[in-house]
Design goal:
The protein is of the alpha+beta class. It has three domains: about 35-45 and about 325-400, Elongation Factor Tu (Ef-tu), domain 3, CATH 2.40.30.170; about 50-80 and about 290-320, RNA polymerase II/Efflux pump adaptor protein, barrel-sandwich hybrid domain (OB fold (Dihydrolipoamide Acetyltransferase, E2P), Beta Barrel), CATH 2.40.50.100; about 110-255, Helix Hairpins (Orthogonal Bundle), CATH 1.10.287.1490. About 50% of the residues lie in helices and about 25% in strands. Strands 2-12-16-14-13-17 form a six-stranded antiparallel barrel. Strands 7-8-6-4-10 form a five-stranded antiparallel sheet. A four-stranded antiparallel sheet has the order 3-11-9-5, with no helix packed on it. Helix 3 runs antiparallel to helix 5 and helix 4 (about 155-185) packs antiparallel against helix 5. The chain is flat and about 105 Å long. The relative contact order is 0.19.
Length: about 400
């Protein structure tokens, strides 16, 4: 088949006996009235491949599909033996019941004074957390300002150093000018007052430089004091943190410590149980079966065998979503000017040349490439009426009317 084909769609009525008499303007008008179709070669592709994995250890009981098989939503793909994870869930649920009862008992036995101590205990823990955050902020601020001071990278200091360099250059220029004017004065070319004015201006510039140097020294001293203050604040905050921790240790009676430990144990068991249930609650899990959660798909890879023990994170099967099929085509460079985004095209599969699919151009590459010695521009086409006859990697003809 040709890589592309131009098909004339509008017939031109030629007056008998007038072919040789048509002038150039009439022939050009007929060419402009022609409608033609660009026919290119393409391939059906999909970028919606789904790898199904599990987040726990299980064994493969049965595999119900093979590679290349078509599937629909709800179809069973793999049956797993979930005895291990179910036993673990039951064990955690049992431990959780026991630990909740123990926590209730401890809290019930704790008297009113104990509850007051418990509130103070929580207040101290909160104060420790806040103090630790403040200490972190102070430390970060100290490190940043100290580094800027050491590297003289502070914006205020850098500006003054820039001003100093400009002032020094200005002074140098004025001193050079003074030498020239002295020569002119010696020769009687300029009055003495002009020389005096320039010498005065030079003294003013020297004073300005001294002022900038004093400003640099003052700012650096201020920055150093700020860094020293931060260092002192950090020391004070560390001391405060140590004091709070000591108070907490003095306050934490054995009963309170036991209750807090029990609360943490119950919370840990609740989190672990919730995590296991989330793993079994994914969209493709139905009881102990892995099922398809795409409306129309194809199994592209089965990565396990019956009897396998699969570990957390291991891929079991891969499927592609047929509802996400697209067509990739290559337009010869001389025709790309006639292809537009959202333009309707006709797709004809080589496997079923009597079938027609409608698509739209959704992407035109911004870069041409060379394929088989020909320069082409890749395009991407979405499908409007995809069905079970059109499969991934099918070769197709693409017709673009113009």
């Amino acid at each position: 088949m040709k890589h592309f084909l131009l098909i004339a769609l509008a017939s031109l009525t030629l007056v008998s006996g007038c072919n040789k008499k048509q002038n150039k303007q009439e022939r050009l008008q007929e060419q402009n009235d022609e409608t033609y179709t660009i026919e290119i070669f393409g391939t059906v592709k999909t970028d919606a491949q789904k790898n199904i994995t599990i987040d726990f250890q299980a064994s493969v009981e049965s595999i119900h599909v093979i590679e290349g098989q078509s599937i629909e939503a709800g179809d069973t793909l793999i049956t797993l033996n979930l005895e291990s994870i179910n036993a673990l869930i039951q064990k955690i649920e049992h431990e959780l019941i026991i630990n909740r009862l123990e926590l209730d008992r401890l809290e019930h036995e704790h008297d009113l004074s104990g509850k007051d101590i418990n509130r103070e205990y929580r207040t101290l823990k909160n104060s420790i957390s806040v103090t630790e955050e403040e200490l972190t902020q102070l430390t970060d601020d100290y490190n940043e300002k100290n580094q800027m001071l050491l590297k003289q990278d502070d914006p205020d200091i850098k500006k003054l150093f820039n001003d100093l360099e400009m002032a020094k250059q200005d002074l140098k220029n004025s001193q050079e000018e003074l030498e020239r004017k002295r020569s002119l004065f010696d020769s009687g070319a300029i009055p003495e007052q002009e020389l005096i004015d320039l010498e005065f201006a030079i003294e003013q510039k020297k004073m300005a430089i001294n002022g900038i140097l004093l400003s640099i020294e003052g700012i650096m001293l201020a920055k150093e004091r700020r860094v020293d203050q931060l260092r002192i604040q950090i020391s004070q905050k560390k001391a405060q943190l140590d004091r709070l921790k000591n108070e907490l240790r003095d306050l934490a009676t054995p009963e309170i410590t036991v209750i807090e430990i029990q609360r943490e144990r119950v919370k840990s068991l609740e989190d672990e149980l919730e995590n296991l249930k989330v793993k079994l609650g994914r969209s493709y899990f139905k009881d102990n079966r892995i099922t398809s959660d795409v409306n129309r798909g194809i199994v592209t890879e089965v990565s396990c065998f019956e009897g396998d023990v699969v570990n957390s994170g291991q891929k079991l099967i891969s499927i592609i979503d047929l509802d996400s099929l697209k067509v990739e085509g290559d337009v010869p460079e001389e025709f790309i000017k006639d292809v537009e985004l959202d333009e309707e095209v006709t797709i004809i599969p080589l496997a079923y040349p009597d079938r027609r699919y409608i698509g739209r151009v959704v992407h035109i590459s911004s870069m041409a490439i060379v394929k088989k010695g020909e320069t082409v521009v890749p395009i991407l086409i979405s499908l409007n009426n995809n069905d079970e006859w059109l499969l991934p990697n099918f070769n197709v003809d693409i017709e673009i009317e113009n």
